[in-house]
Design goal:
With 123 residues, the protein is mainly alpha-helical. It has one domain. 47% of the residues lie in helices and 0% in strands. The longest helix is centred in the last third of the chain and has 20 residues. The termini are far apart. This is Transcriptional regulator WhiB. Its cofactor is [4Fe-4S] cluster. It comes from Streptomyces diacarni. InterPro entries: 4FE4S_WBL, Whib.
């Protein structure tokens, strides 16, 4: 984003930055096999002020691309580990990834709360 001399950098910092998928092999060995490399990035990331119906339609189209991708699992894990705040990654929207991360945190907390006696009793 270009700034005019009179535009404050602080104002620019408040605008959320939409990250696009890395387009080089440094993103991981899986990235070179991603089907989305051949598709338009706009399918995976929302334009500003996108109407809800258009967003849902675009996300479904992106998910169809992801469904045929041989590296869907690797992409999804990348988006969950980073975590990627925007776009469709690994067949999941940002909201769906937040749910997965929340469930993982709860499961990890529950597993940590179990005592060895409870674990041996279950086994």
């Amino acid at each position: 984003m270009l700034h005019t001399p009179h535009q404050s950098l602080q104002a620019a910092a408040t605008v959320p930055v939409q990250r696009t998928p890395e387009r080089d092999d440094q993103a991981g060995p899986w990235h070179g096999d991603a089907v989305c490399r051949r598709d338009e990035a706009g399918l995976f990331f929302a334009p500003s002020k996108e109407p809800t119906a258009a967003r849902l339609s675009r996300e479904q189209a992106a998910k169809r691309v992801c469904a045929r991708c041989p590296v869907l699992v690797e992409c999804r894990e990348h988006a969950l580990v980073m975590p990627e705040p925007y776009g469709v990654w690994g067949g999941l929207t940002a909201a769906e990834r937040r749910v997965v991360l929340s469930r993982r945190r709860r499961a990890k907390t529950a597993a940590a709360a179990e005592t060895p006696a409870e674990v041996s009793r279950i086994a």
